[in-house]
Amino acid sequence: MRIDKFLKVSRLIKRRTVAKELADAGRIEINGRVAKSGSTVNVNDKITIHYGSRVINVAVVNLNENAKKDQSKEMYELLSES
Question: What is the pTM of this model?
Fold first, then answer.
């Protein structure tokens, strides 16, 4: 699954276009490497998202193409937030 779609479906970012812009600006990392919007996400990957002054680290637990709102929290595990 593409990183921009994962972030939108998991509701870490509200809109896919915003996720794409963040990724293309180099503010999203997968396993410590800068990710572009088309980068592939796999189970057990570690994602770091830089929102301005906030940094969120999550681990991918599940990939679900069409997750409902209550299922979206099951797609990732929050590792840290600062």
Answer: 0.93
